Amino acid sequence: MEGTGLNNFPQFGVLAGVKILVCGGAIAGPFGATLLGEIGAEVVHLESPKNPDSTRGHYGYSQNHRNQISMVADMKTPEGLEIFKKLIKWTDIFIESSKGGTYEKMGLTDEVLWEVNPSLVIVHVSGFGQTGVPEYISRASYDAVGQAFSGYMSFNGTPKEALKISPYLSDYVTALNTCWTALAAYVHVLRTGRGEAVDVAQYESLARILDTRPIEYFTDGKEFPRTGNKDSQAALFSFYTCKDGGTIFIGMNGYGPVHRGYPLIGLPKPGDGDPEIDQIISGWMADTDLGRRLEAAMEKFVSEHTVDEVEKIMLENQIPCQKVYSLEDCVRDPHWKAREIFTEWDDPMMGRVKGIGIVNKWKNNPGEIKWGAPLFGENNKEVLRDLGYTEEETEDLARRGITACLDFEQTYETYKLGELFPHYREGFTEHWKKEQEDETYEI
Asked: What pTM did the predictor assign?
């Protein structure tokens, strides 16, 4: 991605040519932009020279900022603000992640941005939203805050302790929410020519997937005790621990699985004369006498078989099930391999790395990883050139600290990568040597 500016992004994927500017750090906003960049969108990540993305210097940055280019400018200076506004004019979709009201306090309301670019899509990503109770709007938020405030965390865990879902559930759900709202607004702009803004709140992104819990609470006054790995509603729709300690999910619900499955675990098939089970068509509630009978039969069955034996029996009888995979299991599984979920790419700091690749399979316009996550300010010169700045003006901005950048060696030392990740050095050294030999690296 060296030498990449605003006018020479590679053209590929279903979003080829869609221009995205993202401001903010961590996961929810930038990762949403990366997902769009992996299917062709042209993504510029704008950071402050005084406040780099908080995930820089860690594996998370390498995984979640691919296909972006980096521009660093201080928006709190007139010159940096001018750079920002020129980027806004270039942009189709602007994604910002910060405390609610941050841009409004800077004088950068939606209306001000639409004066610069009338057809701009604006996506505000924050913990608590842009409207509501002021004390909440101004709160900072992390993933765990979103999980706790949304109520989502209260449904997970044991009666004794609520459970945070890892890794970073509310951040990643918010990133997905960011993607679809940005594209929905973009479709609106294509149809009308008028800009649109959307307010994405982290906790609301999780609240939207609370399933039936809210409607049951309001309709029936129902409370939901935490049941660990047992489903709180349906019998025979849970995780079970087998004879060898392995854990497996079994979903013995639906007409076919019920009729094929009950005899496997020592229960009569519905309709064979048992007065309780005669009525069952597709399943039963867990918190009933019959539900507890069904669960007891399954617990006895799994206690007599290993997890592999249980999985084999269930699959042979077309009963949905899945033993709990570790990452090692995922790596070895032939279906994971066939769909190329894990892939390799070149990272500027670590060299050749392997991680999660492109998900969703596009038939005619596949997504691609064109380059790894950029170094801090790596594309300053090219972006400023394409915005109309002369070489002298660019050098002056850097000299006065309005822009900033870190090369390979500075990045390694700044983030103490040798201390945090001792094996980082191998990839770093290979890249540094190669760039010195080629004499092509410039920042």
From this structure: 0.90
Angle of helix 169-192 versus helix 28-37 axis, rounded to 10: 60
Report the C-alpha gap between 332 and 337 in whole angstroms: 8
pLDDT of residue 443: 22
What's the sign of the alpha-carbon dihedral 395, 399, 400, 403?
positive
Reference 93, options 33, 171, 16, 25; nearest CA is 33
The yes-or-no answer on residue 171 being catalytic is yes
Mean pLDDT in runs of 10 for the chain (443 residues)? Answer: 85 97 90 96 95 85 94 96 98 96 96 98 97 95 95 94 94 97 98 98 96 93 89 92 97 92 93 80 83 95 98 97 96 96 91 92 96 94 97 97 90 72 54 42 25
Q: Which two tokens mark 19? A: 């221009």
Amino acid 425: pLDDT: 53
The CATH classification number of 237-323 equals 3.30.1540
Query: What pLDDT score does 219 carry?
Result: 95
Helix (H, G, I), strand (E, B) or coil at 92: coil
354: burial class by Cβ within 10 Å (0-12, 13-18, 19+)? exposed
- Dihedral sign from CA coordinates of 45, 46, 52, 54: negative
- The H or E element spanning position 428 is helix 424-438
* Residues forming a β-bridge with 251: 237
What does the pLDDT read at residue 419? 66
Cα–Cα dist 9/92, whole Å: 15
- pLDDT score of 423: 57
Could you say which of 92, 143, 171, 347 is catalytic? 171
- CATH number 3.40.50.20 is the correct assignment for the domain at 19-208+340-438: no
**pLDDT score of 415:** 74
Q: Where are the domains of the chain?
A: 19-208+340-438, 237-323
Q: Give the residue from 373, 380, 381, 317 showing the smallest Cα distance to 350.
A: 373
H-helix or E-strand containing 114?
A: helix 110-116
Written as six digits, the tokens of 245 are: 């300690």
DSSP 278: G
Q: HEC string of 329-387? A: HHHHCHHHHHCCCEEEEEECCCEEEEEECCCCCCCCCCCCCCCCCCCCCCCHHHHHHHC
